[in-house]
Amino acid sequence: MTDEPINEKPARRRLSYEAYTECWYVPGETHIVDLIHPDDGLTLHFSEDAAAIRARYADARRMTCNEAWTAIDATALAKYQTGIVEVDEARFMEALNVLPPVGWTTKAGVESFRISERIWGNITDIYARLGNRYFKLADDIRLPASTVAERVAAFAAANSKPVSVDPSEPHRTAETERRLAGTPSSAAPEPGEAS
Description:
Elements: E1 22-25, E2 32-36, H1 50-56, E3 61-64, H2 65-80, E4 82-87, H3 89-98, E5 101-107, E6 110-115, E7 123-130, E8 133-140, H4 145-158, H5 174-181
Antiparallel strand pairs: 1-2, 1-3, 4-8, 5-6, 6-7, 7-8
């Protein structure tokens, strides 16, 4: 053993995530590179300095976490929020049955529902039906059904030609039409009768 002192870095404090106020962020991304530890200015997970970060991420910027989250949200909205597109019945029905729908309702003649799983933050896929036409958009899950109905009606009026349907896709039968209209089947057994 030698008597020379060992050059060890002082231990960094363990902090809650709320204690980190700065981070490295690359504009246009939907995530940060890493948080910056307030004790030494190095990154939390890999103890990297500015030169090491910029060697890997040339466009990385040091900023407050709040600034980064604001930029990330704006990037994500631009990336994931979409306008209305027309889809076929099969896609509409698949979306309706894949997860429990949120806000399934009919307003102004437009049936609509939201997928319970979010794409980003509050952005989710929203499906709508107007007559025998089907639509999809990605927007805030809290978007009122009346607003969805207005947008879908305007889109349908501006785009009068329905989407072409792949003949290999299943099509709505008369029975499906009857059920959607809420009309009882003439072949349905009476309550208490064997089916």
